[in-house]
Specification:
Keywords: Transcription, Transcription regulation. GO terms for molecular function: DNA-binding transcription factor activity; sequence-specific DNA binding. InterPro entries: Homeodomain-like_sf, HTH_AraC, Tscrpt_reg_HTH_AraC_N. This is AraC family transcriptional regulator. There is one protein chain. This protein is α+β, with helices and mostly antiparallel strands. The chain is 49% helix and 20% strand. The strands form two sheets. The chain has a six-stranded antiparallel beta sheet. It has a four-stranded antiparallel beta sheet with strand order 3-8-5-6. Helix 2 crosses helix 4.
């Protein structure tokens, strides 16, 4: 990954950047960060250098060089990151394209593959997994392909498909398998989460969200908490606050305007919840 940084002049770059391979993003941070609320997008996160700790409800997940996470849905959580031995954090984020996922799952099922009880734990919480030899080799080849625009264009997507296949048959493959099962509870909640992220500024109710998942309110609450470890309204509030922070910090919006844009009708309620969530006022983060 450091070779990729050197080749593309990214030694002073902070944050996430798109690569020439669709759905693959590169991450670099010189010093890491203190514990803070973040919104992790769904997909595969591979860390090559540095360490991170994720806090989600009562779960604490540590991951470091050579570890990966699989997120079937976007997750509002808290994260702290650490640069080790004065070396920057380096990593890759890989999207899981739905049509590719369904194609691979269908092929695995047609060939008789089944998640056994040991490999496919019903617990859908976050856990880090060490890259095995085949996955590590595929990630290395992906990084080599990124150093050539021609190779990235011709074989990049094929290597991404290979990585997703190895994850499907690996320890966290059940997360993607469950995501591909259209009528399963996990897939239904995933579709609701996509709706929340697209329409968070609207007047969304639990009854409406449960109906869109074709579930009773009680079953919806239970399944939603199983997947996200949050209630639907807690999740929606965190998404709105994260979107408001982006508007204030990145686009220079005033707090009251940002509050209205993300779905708050009361600026005072927004200010209270913003300060409680980020431990800082909107004005402090904007300065």
């Amino acid at each position: 990954m450091q070779t990729y940084v050197d080749q593309h002049g990214l030694n002073s770059r902070e944050g996430i950047i798109d690569t020439t391979i669709p759905g693959v993003r590169f991450y670099r941070s010189s010093v890491g960060c203190e514990r803070q609320p973040l919104l992790y997008q769904s997909g595969i996160i591979i860390l090559a250098q540095g360490r991170k700790t994720i806090h989600l409800a009562d779960q604490h997940v540590n991951y470091g060089p050579g570890d990966y996470l699989v997120l079937g849905v976007p997750m509002p959580l808290e994260c702290e990151a650490f640069a080790i031995d004065d070396k920057p954090l380096l990593g890759l984020n890989i999207d899981v394209e739905p049509s590719l996922l369904h194609q691979q799952v269908d092929q695995l099922i047609r060939h008789g593959y089944q998640c056994n009880s040991e490999r496919c734990n019903p617990d859908l919480g976050l856990h880090s997994v060490q890259l095995d030899e085949r996955m590590a080799d595929a990630v290395k080849r992906l990084l080599i392909a990124l150093q050539s625009e021609v190779e990235a264009h011709i074989i990049g997507s094929a290597i991404v498909a290979e990585i997703i296949y190895y994850i499907l048959i690996g320890p966290k493959g059940h997360v993607l398998f469950d995501l591909a099962q259209h009528d399963g509870h996990y897939a239904r909640i995933a579709r609701v989460l996509n709706r929340i992220h697209q329409t968070y500024a609207e007047n969304l109710t639990v009854d409406d969200l449960a109906a869109s998942a074709n579930m009773s309110v009680s079953a919806f609450h239970r399944s939603f908490r199983q997947v996200t470890l949050e209630s639907p309204l807690q999740y929606l509030k965190k998404v709105r606050l994260m979107k408001a922070k982006e508007l204030i910090v990145n686009e220079g919006k005033r707090a009251n305007d940002a509050a209205l844009m993300v779905g708050y009708s009361s600026p005072s309620q927004f200010s209270r919840e913003f300060k409680r969530h980020f431990n800082a006022t909107p004005k402090a983060l904007a300065s």
